[in-house]
Amino acid sequence: MPFRVFRFRRFSSQLLLLLAGLIALVQVAVYLLISRANERNAVEHIDQSLQTGVRIFQQNLAERIDYLAGSAKVMSSDYPIRQLMMQEPLDRKTLRSALVTYSERVKAPVITLLSLEGEVVALTDDELGSENTGPFRELVRLATKDDLEQISGYSYLAGRLHVLVVVPLYAPYPNVAAWFGVAYPIDTKFAQAIKSTTRLDVTFTSDDPEVQPPRVLSTTLDGPMAQAVARHVPAPKNGPLQSETVTLNGEDYVTLFQRLDLLGEAPVRIALQRSLLAELAPARELENIVLLISLAALATATLAALWIAHGISQPLQQLAAHTESVATGDYTRRIDLPREDELGQLATAFNHMTAGLAERDRVRDLLGKVVSPEIAAQLLQSDLKLGGEEREVTILFCDLRNFTGMSEQMNPTDVLALLNRYLDRMSTIIERHGGVIDKYIGDAIMALFGAPVTDAGAAGKAIAAAREMAQALEVLNRELVAEGQPALAFGIGINTARVVAGNMGSKTRLNYTVIGDGVNLASRLESLTKEPGYDTPIIISEATLHALPVPPSARALGEVKVKGKADAVKIFALTAKGQSHPPYAV
Question: How many Å apart are CA 392 and CA 496, to the nearest integer?
Answer without folding.
Answer: 7
